[in-house]
Design brief:
Layout lengths: L14 H6 L7 H21 L3 H19 L4 H10 L3 H23 L15 E2 H17 L3 H10 L3 H25 L3 E2 L11 H27 L23 H19 L6 H14 L14 H6 L6 H19 L10 H20 L4 H10 L3 H20 L16
Antiparallel strand pairs: 1-2
Family: Belongs to the TsuA/YedE (TC 9.B.102) family.
Keywords: Cell inner membrane, Cell membrane, Membrane, Transmembrane, Transmembrane helix, Transport
Pfam family, one: Sulf_transp
């Protein structure tokens, strides 16, 4: 949901261990601290919020843990394919999406939920706003160093520059919320289109079409790989046996299935798929309201959204999921002995500012990010999810020419993917 470069691995005292795993001893003080924070937050949610919120915190923890352990991302998956033709990560995306549509189809068809809230997928119109927003997001995630999920789990892993990316992600999302009426009401767009409900295929037929599309995309990545003789991805820190559950890097394809299952559980818990960036608009709007800006007058915060603006941020299910992702990634990082703050430079900070603004603004225009629009949209059989993926990939191609201006690398040979 999210992608950053791998954190530099800390030096370890045992050179044999370093050679075999690349992992340090667990950072127990950090793990204990994270568990205490998680417990306090869990108690607060149990005592003060709806029954689903503690469950969502747990799901967020598992999402963040999975993302970090597998170094499962979206930004570098797009970048590696666009630059050197390596499509292994994109094939993992197809496995994730295949598992997701298989789980989402019966849930959406029969309205399966844990709290009788009803369920609805992310199905949005395709118009100028989606085209522009997804393209901006594609450029932004390559400059900012990670997508929406990648920003959160990189913060959990200690990548300092991602705090800058997140700050301006929030700013961009807030400005996008203010401008959204122009993009959605004054510019052309087609009606929301679902492969399941807009075509007469039903969820069974839409599932079959989706699986065929994922297979086709996976095959195309293999064709490109062979044609470009793409370099293989370098290994990431791992270990063997049962310890790998807690300390070693997980296989991409195993993580893909885990993410699909967790997204389906999120859908059944809160009635909507996993999302990230709507919380950024909420946080930014609350901050703007605090300094005297009349955000309540924005059309974005009218109707159903008005209640979220007035309530505690802990009542917002997306906020709770985001906090869980950060904590889960932090625990995973500390368990591998990998948590370490990274250095800031003028180049990566400048790129983070621009990238964060582009992603925040783009996500609002495109009805979501790599998680809400791409993962959640495609899993919900929405056409806009596919369009988002195509335009974000186009933005990635453009960003390959911009990254060197900020001192950021562009893959040309074997490097580590996360």
């Amino acid at each position: 949901m999210a992608t950053t470069n791998v954190q530099p691995v800390n030096e370890v005292k045992d050179p044999v261990k370093a050679k075999s795993t690349g992992l340090n001893k667990p950072q127990m003080k950090l793990i204990v601290g994270a568990l205490i924070v998680t417990a306090i937050l869990m108690v607060h949610l149990l005592l003060n919020q709806a029954a689903m919120q503690p469950i969502l915190l747990l799901l967020g923890l598992l999402l963040g843990y999975t993302l970090f352990h597998a170094r499962f991302g979206f930004t570098s998956a797009f970048r590696r394919f666009a630059s050197v033709g390596n499509g292994k990560a994109l094939r993992a995306h197809m496995v994730m999406l295949g598992a997701a549509v298989t789980l989402f189809a019966p849930i959406l068809a029969f309205g399966v939920s844990f709290f009788d809230t009803g369920v609805a997928g992310y199905v949005a119109p395709v118009g100028i706003s989606v085209l522009v927003g997804a393209f901006l997001f594609g450029v932004g995630m390559q400059l900012g160093g990670g997508c929406a999920s990648g920003t959160l789990y990189a913060i959990g892993g200690g990548r300092t520059v991602m705090f800058v990316t997140l700050l301006f992600f929030i700013v961009g999302s807030t400005v996008g919320a203010a401008h959204l009426p122009f993009w959605t009401e004054e510019l052309p767009a087609m009606e929301a289109f679902s492969l399941a409900t807009s075509t007469g295929l039903g969820y069974g037929g839409a599932w079959a079409v989706s699986i065929a599309l994922f297979g086709l995309i996976a095959w195309l990545t293999l064709v490109v790989e062979r044609k470009k003789k793409a370099p293989q991805m370098a290994p990431v820190p791992t270990t063997n046996g049962w310890k790998r559950i807690f300390r070693g890097s997980w296989p991409l394809f195993a993580a893909a299935i885990a993410l699909a299952v967790l997204n389906a559980l999120t859908l059944m818990t809160r009635g909507a798929p996993w999302g990230i960036t709507s919380a950024f608009a909420l946080w930014g709007s609350k901050a703007a309201d605090f300094i005297g800006i009349d955000v309540a007058s924005w059309s974005y915060w009218q109707g159903a959204n008005a209640q979220a603006l007035e309530a505690s941020i802990f009542a917002d299910s997306t906020t709770v999921l985001n906090l869980g992702v950060i904590l889960g990634a932090f625990i995973a990082s500390a368990a591998g002995g990998l948590f370490k703050f990274s250095k800031l430079t003028k180049g990566n900070v400048s790129a983070a500012v621009i990238g964060g603004l582009f992603m925040g603004y783009g996500a609002r225009l495109a009805f979501g990010c790599n998680i809400g629009a791409y993962f959640g949209g495609i899993a919900s059989f929405s056409l806009h999810g596919y369009v988002w993926g195509i335009l974000a990939l186009a933005g990635t191609f453009v960003a390959l020419y911009l990254r060197p201006l900020f001192g950021l690398s562009v893959p040309k040979s074997k490097d580590t993917f996360c």
